[in-house]
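Archive transcription. Copying these from loose printouts into the bound notebook so they stop getting lost. Printout 1 of 2:
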Amino acid sequence: MTFPKDFLWGGATAANQYEGGYLSGGKGPSTLDAITGGSHTKPRMITYKTKDGKIETCGRGDALPEGAVGYIDPETYYPSHVATDFYHHYKEDIALFAEMGFKCFRLSIAWSRICPKGTKEVNEEGLSFYDNVFDELLSHGIEPIVTINHFDIPMYLADELDGWSSRETIDHFLFFCETLFTRYKNKVKYWMTFNEINFLRSWTQIGIHDNSKQSKYQAAHHLFVASGKAVTLGHQINPDFKIGMMVAYIPSYPMSCKPEDVMEALTFNREQEFYMDVQVKGYYPKHKLKEFEREGITIKKEAGDDAIIASGTVDYIGFSYYMSTVSASDPTDVKYVGGNQMPAVKNPYLEESEWGWAVDPLGLRIALCKLEDRYHIPLFVVENGFGAVDKVEADGTIQDDYRIDYFKKHIAAMKDAVELDGVDLIGYTPWGCIDIVSAGTGEMKKRYGFIYVDMDDEGNGTLKRSKKKSFDWYQKVIATNGENLTEM
């Protein structure tokens, strides 16, 4: 067989898009609890309160005014408050994952469920909830894969400390990590520190009020130090822990063989690789230091920061792969289309999803090869999937052959990377294995899952779970360890 006998087949979710239970069980608010829903044409918005008490809104990637704090309007719909309610449906959902044959399940832990303000106060009810989740997974033979922080921060830390702009947030995060590592040291083996660290920005995701490059990269430095400390701490608590990083990887091709286009693609790819270079190799690459010098960016470090980063390198790279993009030196030559957390340049050789995302299975093999050649540590595809509008037929079935086709081609590309290129790949967890709220648009109609959840964009629905056609297909893929990609 191509894939190792212990290959980790499963699925992936995030607490803020799936868990719900907004303030249940002692949970505190997080930044994403103040983000509204959206659509193709209606952007997601932050609700906030100004220093003089006015209630305002701004785009989810915008900077909040100085002194502004997050605000949750009781008359506004916020998707994270219920999402698709794993909090109350975890046993039912895990039973469905087990029926599909999952070997692992990637989930994130809501920081504000464990530490309601993000500070050093622990909510025992929150810890018990995840105890129950992990016990349920393990009873079905499913390995938990835990993302420690996935795209949000407790609202108190954002409002009172300016989030990851503050050095103090590192200490609060380390307390959170130590609490998790100690409590779950015999239940969780695989961890990742930050989700898509290269996409973390703004008040929404890291609690900062200033979106300048100076502020962004200073916050990134604090994230690097926090990750390095967390890796070292985790290995001290349990040497068997496997602690990885997670990056959104979107390989970019040059628009042509014109050297200027090739240089544009190199520059684009370097920005993603920068975050892996620091966390895998343990130091800032020279090209990034030169960029800081040119642009007048000064990273404030404390004594020992470089040593912390160097000694706290990760055990594996987890990455998301949804699409590729194209780079061109002349912006008049390109057409922009949809993309994961950013606009992407249209590739005339590729088809696109309903949301404009390029569908490029071979790009996954290319990504795996590039990462294997550059880093020489195990790789884990922890997100990959196809957002689409699913139709429930009169008989209740969902015939999502388009999703099956997408996964079939991407798994085939992974097989080639392992069998033909020798890539060390340890697992595959498709994104949104059950329907969840879209991170980019806040919609429910943009569905990824093998399991349908009855919930609409306005938060209406029964939350009933039902299997899509892809459920049975993925079940067969797992049962054959990826060898059977065609038969149902």
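Printout 2 of 2:
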Amino acid sequence: MTLPLIAILRGLTPDNAEAVGHALIDAGITRIEVPLNSPDVLASITAMSRAYGDVAEIGAGTVLTTDEVDAVRQAGATFIVSPNCNPDVIRYSKQRGLGSYPGVFTATECFAALAAGADALKIFPASLMGPEALKALRAVLPFETQIYPVGGVGPDDFAVWRAAGANGFGLGSSLFKPDWSADRVGEEAKRSVAAWMAGK
């Protein structure tokens, strides 16, 4: 079962990619994003996609241009995450057979992203929006819209966000820091998975 939790590994280095990927997958998180502002990011995506592409989805984050979409696709990424809503990047990602998770904050951005073909909406930064604002957005968005709060959200916040209409979460600093061991990442991942399952 694929849980709607995306691990955001900002700052990951290629030498740790496989170990961290294994720890996440072992804990039950099988959607893994490596942001482009990480060191030697294409090498990390390549390493994880080769090692775990049959059991996990490996994606790229902080993708801003169509050229970057091509580069990460060639490295093995299967989905694209952006901090912003760029309809050209969304459409291009879908044309290339990739999942698209653009960053949005307003109703205008939400509807523009959906019109361009986004698979899910990344509410960013979630800590500034808050659950009450998401609840208001939920009232006007199509029922089937998938919404992932990202930015300042961790397992302790799952319940209140899910009550407001969140379908999943992108987990960054609550799950991974560059100086953490793979074992520590695995323990944090298990905590996040347990929090998600407790809310089922």
